[in-house]
Amino acid sequence: GTLLGTPGYAPPEAWVSCESVGLRGDVYGIGLIGYYLLTGRDPPDATDERAQDSAALIGELQRCAPRWLVRVLGRCLAQDPARRYADANQLWRTLALSERASKLARASSG
After folding, report:
1. 23, 47, 88, 110: which one has the fewest Cβ atoms less than 10 Å from its Cβ?
2. How many angstroms separate the CA atoms of 19 and 49, rounded?
């Protein structure tokens, strides 16, 4: 199989078999877009050790994003597809709920 898409944004499973990439692979790519938007840096390519270590990417996000967003993006960037959101709809619902909860917490503490 041939890798389709942008290599730096491909999920880890795409490097093993393109047939194994599904909606959770898209969620991984969305997580990397979030990483790019928040850090201003392209995600590491597959040959970079950070690409195999989502904890390193999450560590970089912790310096520039609120905790709730780091948690959401961290789940998107899980190496194991089963640990990611099932699809973009589930991710979107989680983002909306997390942001709302964050706003409520800020309002009640200030």
Report:
1. 110
2. 24
Long-range contacts from 47-54, C-beta under 8 angstroms, 24+ separation: 51/12, 52/12, 52/79, 54/78, 54/79
Question: What global pTM score does this model have?
Answer: 0.82
Q: Quick check: 1 and 17 in contact, CB under 8 A?
A: yes
Q: What is the pLDDT of residues 62-86, one digit of tens each?
A: 999 999 999 999 999 999 999 999 9
What's the number of CA atoms in the CB half-sphere (13 Å) around residue 110? Answer: 6
Tokens at 39, concatenated: 């850090």
